[in-house]
């Protein structure tokens, strides 16, 4: 069947109203959970083939994340989809006001390759929890995970409800010509713009989960041990191929030397050697070449070794970095950590404010004033104080970018709302009509209305 036929069938199926039934949604969320658990080993094997991601990392950053999402919606489906009563103001008396959450209809989810399961399936889970039909297109760059996801979805779900579509740029371009009620895209800012433009032709709303250069700032008031430990973990997780990884480091000059030593200590301790099965590989030669080109030999503080055959790049720290260096021009998306030192916290925050708004930002300090400046002066999608990445792991927090790093958000309740329309309904009694609402109008009536509206 052609993809356009599948989308048409999903539109027809949505109109039957079956997906609006809570039992129906629950049944398919349970089903998805069941097939993921049943096929857990296939999922590990595929991602291992794609970029050497270990079973441990895949479980903690992908499978457990997805199962947790499903469990959240199973538990909260009823309360999330409940019609909400709101206050009815004076001019609308006597009446009742309600917000009905309505599924949008037919959703297109386009996934990225770096956390292939989570980034394709997490939006799907939110979309079907909210009562929609869905087409998901995983990234072709991680070919094996794309194939396994396509298989387990298409073998277990009716295509008129949920369908996984394999394809690269050409297929996605075709897909974007079709009409959806919402497009949820995860990927680069460059492709995000292509998706946004295509969506605008049909006035289709979008959620764009994009990237950017996310800074981590370490001041002299930070707990340097814990800052180094957490930054090393977050930067080299998935070999730096994480959208919210600290892209670069800003360290207060007076503690720079001690901090760099502590970073080195933890990189050694965490054992990212080529033979370590816990250190992920670079996804492909294209990205490998792009990354190794960014390693300026004169600026290596630690690491700098790589192996093209193995797609291995050692955790690398670059120092004496300027804002003009090539490594500071684009999102790195790999295990290279440039370090810039600063002497004045206010000046560095002002400098950051002039750059594109990143997906994340991190501050390590115990100084209350610095924390306030960070929260109030800098704009970024989301972030942490004295931690990296982990804000994603709390389903009570929205996850999304701002400005160049994205539009909209998801996770937990926010994911449910992302795929719902908030329909306002005012219901009035059929008696007690106020005369002042209707013509003929007079100065006296206007006077009453002004009084009523507190003018
Ligand atoms: P990408 O933009 O190259 O690809 C993402 C998706 O878009 C893929 O499914 C791909 O098939 C499709 N695509 C690529 N080119 C296209 C085109 N010309 N027309 C239509 N579709 C096209 O991104 P990527 O390399 O998979 O992921 C890396 C980027 O994604 C990084 O910038 C990273 O920060 C960002 N990212 C963001 C998040 C987030 O949650 N905000 C998560 C992961 C990755």
Automatic annotation (TrEMBL):
Signal peptide: none annotated. GO terms for cellular component: cytoplasm. The keyword NAD applies. GO terms for molecular function: aldehyde dehydrogenase (NAD+) activity. GO terms for biological process: aldehyde metabolic process. Belongs to the aldehyde dehydrogenase family. This is Aldehyde dehydrogenase. It comes from Chryseobacterium taeanense. The keyword Oxidoreductase applies. Keywords: NAD, Oxidoreductase. It holds the Pfam family Aldedh. PANTHER family: ALDEHYDE DEHYDROGENASE (PTHR43570), ALDEHYDE DEHYDROGENASE TYPE III, ISOFORM Q (PTHR43570:SF16). Residues 3-425 form the Aldehyde dehydrogenase domain. The active site is at residues 209, 243.
């Amino acid at each position: 069947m052609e993809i356009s036929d599948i989308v048409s069938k999903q539109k027809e199926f949505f109109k039957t109203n079956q997906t609006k039934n809570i039992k129906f949604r629950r049944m398919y969320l349970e089903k998805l959970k069941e097939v993921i658990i049943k096929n857990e080993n296939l999922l590990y094997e595929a991602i291992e083939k794609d970029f050497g991601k270990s079973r441990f990392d895949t479980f903690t950053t992908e499978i457990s994340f997805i199962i947790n999402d499903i469990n959240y919606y199973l538990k909260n489906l009823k309360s999330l989809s409940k019609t909400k009563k709101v206050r009815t103001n004076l001019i609308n008396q006597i009446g009742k006001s309600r917000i009905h959450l309505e599924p949008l209809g037919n959703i297109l989810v386009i996934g990225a390759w770096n956390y292939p399961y989570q980034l394709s399936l997490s939006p799907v889970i939110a979309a079907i929890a909210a009562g929609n039909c869905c087409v998901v297109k995983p990234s072709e760059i991680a070919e094996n995970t794309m194939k396994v996801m396509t298989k387990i979805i298409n073998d277990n779900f009716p295509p008129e409800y949920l369908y996984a579509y394999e394809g690269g740029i050409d297929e996605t371009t075709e897909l974007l010509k079709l009409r959806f009620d919402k497009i949820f895209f995860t990927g680069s800012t460059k492709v995000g713009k292509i998706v946004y433009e295509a969506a605008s032709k049909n006035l289709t709303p979008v959620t764009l989960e994009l990237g950017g250069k996310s800074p981590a700032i370490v001041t002299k008031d930070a707990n340097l041990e814990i800052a180094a430990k957490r930054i090393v973990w977050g930067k080299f997780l998935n070999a730096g191929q994480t959208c919210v990884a600290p892209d670069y480091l800003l360290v207060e000059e007076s503690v720079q030397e001690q901090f760099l030593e502590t970073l080195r200590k933890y990189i050694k301790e965490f054992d990212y050697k080529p033979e370590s099965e816990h250190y992920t590989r670079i996804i492909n030669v294209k990205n490998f070449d792009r990354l190794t080109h960014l390693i300026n030999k004169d600026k290596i503080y630690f690491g700098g070794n790589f192996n093209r055959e193995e797609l291995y790049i050692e955790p690398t720290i670059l120092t004496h970095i300027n804002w003009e260096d090539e490594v500071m021009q684009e999102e790195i998306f790999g295990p290279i950590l440039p370090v810039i030192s600063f002497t004045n916290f206010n000046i560095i925050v002002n400098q950051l404010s002039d750059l594109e708004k990143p997906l994340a930002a991190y501050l390590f300090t115990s100084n209350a004033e610095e924390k306030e400046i960070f929260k109030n002066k800098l704009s970024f999608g989301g972030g942490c104080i004295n931690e990296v990445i982990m804000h994603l792991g709390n389903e009570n927090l929205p996850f999304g970018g701002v400005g160049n790093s994205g539009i909209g958000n998801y996770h937990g309740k926010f994911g449910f709302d992302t795929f719902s329309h908030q329909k306002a309904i005012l219901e009035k009694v059929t008696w007690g009509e106020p005369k002042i609402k209707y013509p003929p109008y007079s100065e006296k009536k206007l006077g009453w209305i002004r009084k009523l509206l507190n003018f």
